[in-house]
Design a protein that fits this description.
Layout (H helix, E strand, L loop, with lengths): L2 E6 L6 E9 L3 H7 L5 E6 L7 H4 L4 E14 L6 E15 L17 E5 L1 E5 L2 E7 L11 E7 L5 E4 L6 E5 L3 E4 L15 H9 L5
C-alpha cells in the first residue's frame, strides 16, 4: 500500500503504521532516522473477520504447515514480508485446479505464501516488522489457510488478510489467528470438520 499514516496506540510505546493517508517513509529512511540502530516497525491493518460464506471464495483452502523460507522488502521498501513454504496435509477446495499444475509429472506442487511481517538485516541494521492484526502460531502448528493466488502461479497471500488463517487444535477446535477474535462469532464456533463440510457442499461451489 502506498498511502499510510503513523498513529500512536496507547500502551505500545511505539509508532504504529495504520492504513490510509500520508506517504510512508521507506525502511532505509527509518534506519537513517534511528541513527543506524535496530528498528522495530509495528503495523496495524484494519482486518475484520469474514463469514464462512465469504471465506469460501478463496482460490485455495487447505490444511497444512508453514515453514519460513526468507524475508524480503517489498518493491517500495516500505514493508517486510516473510515467504513460507506450505507443507500440504489436506486440500479442501481448489477452485483453480492449482494442485494439478505440477511442473514435473508426479512431483508435488510447491506452494509459497507471503505474510506481512518478518525480520531482515538492511544495510547492516536489524529491522523487525510486526503485523499487529495477527497472533503468532506455535511452530509446526496445523493451520487452516484460505489463500488467494497472486500474479505468480505458485505464490499466494491470505484471503481477507489475517482473517483467512486459523490454527486447528485437538480435537478439531478452530482458533482464528486474527487478534480481534471476539468479533469472530461464526467460524470460531465450528469444528474443523464442520468447516470442511460447509466449504465442500454444492452450495459453496
Amino acid at each position: 500500500m502506498s498511502n499510510m499514516k503513523v498513529a500512536r496506540i496507547a500502551g505500545l510505546g511505539a509508532a504504529v503504521w495504520c492504513c490510509a493517508f500520508a506517504q510512508r517513509p521507506t525502511i532505509p529512511d527509518h534506519i537513517a532516522q534511528n541513527g543506524g540502530r535496530a528498528v522495530s516497525l509495528p503495523v496495524l491493518r484494519d482486518t475484520e473477520p469474514l463469514s464462512l460464506r465469504d471465506l469460501a471464495g478463496a482460490d485455495l483452502v487447505m490444511l497444512g504447515k508453514l515453514v519460513p523460507q526468507r524475508a524480503y522488502m517489498n518493491d517500495r521498501q516500505t514493508e517486510i514480508y516473510t515467504e513460507y513454504e506450505v507443507i500440504a496435509q489436506r486440500v479442501i477446495a481448489d477452485r483453480l485446479g492449482i494442485m494439478a499444475k505440477s511442473t514435473r509429472p508426479g512431483a508435488p506442487v510447491r506452494l509459497l505464501v507471503e505474510l506481512l511481517g518478518g525480520e531482515l538485516v538492511v544495510n547492516g541494521t536489524k529491522v523487525v516488522l510486526d503485523d499487529l492484526s495477527r497472533t503468532r502460531w506455535a511452530e509446526g502448528a496445523n493451520l487452516l489457510m484460505f489463500l488467494k493466488q497472486t500474479s505468480e502461479a505458485n505464490r499466494f497471500r491470505l484471503y481477507g488478510g489475517s482473517a483467512g488463517l486459523f490454527e486447528v487444535k485437538a480435537p478439531g477446535k478452530i482458533e482464528s489467528r486474527l487478534k480481534h477474535v471476539e468479533k469472530d462469532k461464526e467460524v470460531g464456533a465450528l469444528t474443523f470438520e464442520q468447516i470442511v463440510e460447509i466449504i465442500t457442499s454444492p452450495r459453496s461451489q
